[in-house]
Structure to design on (370 residues):
DNA sequence: TCGTGAATGTACCGATTGGTACAGATTATG
DNA sequence: CATAATCTGTACCAATCGGTACATTCACGA
């Protein structure tokens, strides 16, 4: 596939934040235009498929980031315990210590799940499986590893919801530390 | 306050489902009308404040339901361990074994949080505090009780997100059983 | 300096949004 | 039956939605 204009790449993080803050349907072309400083002409030039293509590009970037920065290290780091610790630290940074919301989680709860269902499931499954792998390599019995991983992935999502519901971002860090204790304890 | 027409009460559960499925902004008057079988005239007669009043009424019903069926029993049941078990069973039933989403959680993640922020926080705080109370009465040290409660409330939200992301409602029941083990173990 | 294609802003499209106005139907009360 | 209050459907409103069309501007190679 032909390389898209460079500007496109720069837009994706902005689009990500807009989708995070407003959700898929809530992210109108008006607010996207305002945040990117671009008119519809430019937006549709970079993303001929409109909003759907924008969201798809954002999802692709997120998938790639998590694969590179979380899943692969969890699977491949020779020190699985260190990898688990590092992955939780990266998670805290990525979600801005609870001030940022998980776009995939938001999508999962909304109507857009029908549109991106496969990729949403893949994002979560990738996380769970990578964590399962690390836990197993750290000595956990396979079944227990998978259970713990499933629990941790869900707990992270829940911590993001709760931190936002309480309007208390610090809750996210507390949750991550509890999760780390459970995983490594 | 004067009692609203009886029809109003019957509408609220329907409105709740619509808001759950579509979110606040996604629940257009068109779909609300279709689901309730009522025209705008009737809807605005029952809820002069429009969508905001509808959502507010739904939230009020949810708050009351949780207070009556979860929070108060957790605080008052002389057998706190039985109360915790019962509250988790009620939770599984309420969320239809993971097929139903938490409206308050959905609101917390969306833009509507600005509109209902206080009540969203109160819903979560009520849950956490009631569970903290039961755990303390069951013999947990106060700090540990509160931590466990916070973790459990977040975990329930996370389990709902994950169950929907994986499109695997059974995950919710699994999570609840793990939570029960942690709380009572 | 010119030409060319990419990049961009703007006007516009039909559809839909939340909300209002109001006339007519329905119901309860005398 | 008559009258009044309560409901309810429909037509309508301005604003906004996602998306298209197109004329203009821009950067850059020949």
């Amino acid at each position: 596939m032909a390389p898209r204009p460079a500007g496109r790449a720069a837009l994706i993080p902005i689009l990500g934040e807009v989708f995070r803050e407003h959700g898929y349907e809530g992210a109108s072309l008006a607010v996207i235009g305002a945040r990117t400083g671009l008119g519809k002409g430019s937006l549709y030039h970079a993303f001929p498929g409109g909003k759907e293509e924008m969201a798809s590009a954002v999802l692709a970037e997120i998938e790639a980031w998590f694969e590179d920065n979380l899943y692969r290290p969890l699977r491949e780091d020779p020190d699985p315990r260190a990898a688990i610790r590092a992955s939780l630290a990266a998670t805290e940074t990525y979600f801005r210590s609870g001030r940022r919301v998980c776009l995939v989680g938001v999508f999962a709860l909304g109507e857009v799940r029908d549109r991106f269902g496969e990729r949403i499931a893949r994002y979560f499954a990738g996380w769970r499986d990578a964590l399962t792998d690390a836990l197993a390599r750290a000595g956990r019995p396979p079944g227990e590893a998978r259970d713990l991983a499933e629990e941790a992935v869900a707990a992270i999502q829940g911590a993001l919801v709760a931190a936002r519901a309480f309007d208390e971002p610090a809750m996210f860090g507390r949750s991550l530390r509890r999760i780390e204790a459970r995983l490594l304890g």
Remarks:
- Chain B touches chain A through 40 residues (CB under 8 Å).
- Chain B has a mean pLDDT of 95.
- Residues 28-30, 40-41, 44, 50-51 of chain B lie near DNA strand C (CB under 10 Å from a C1').
- Residues 4 and 39 of chain B are 18 Å apart (CA to CA).
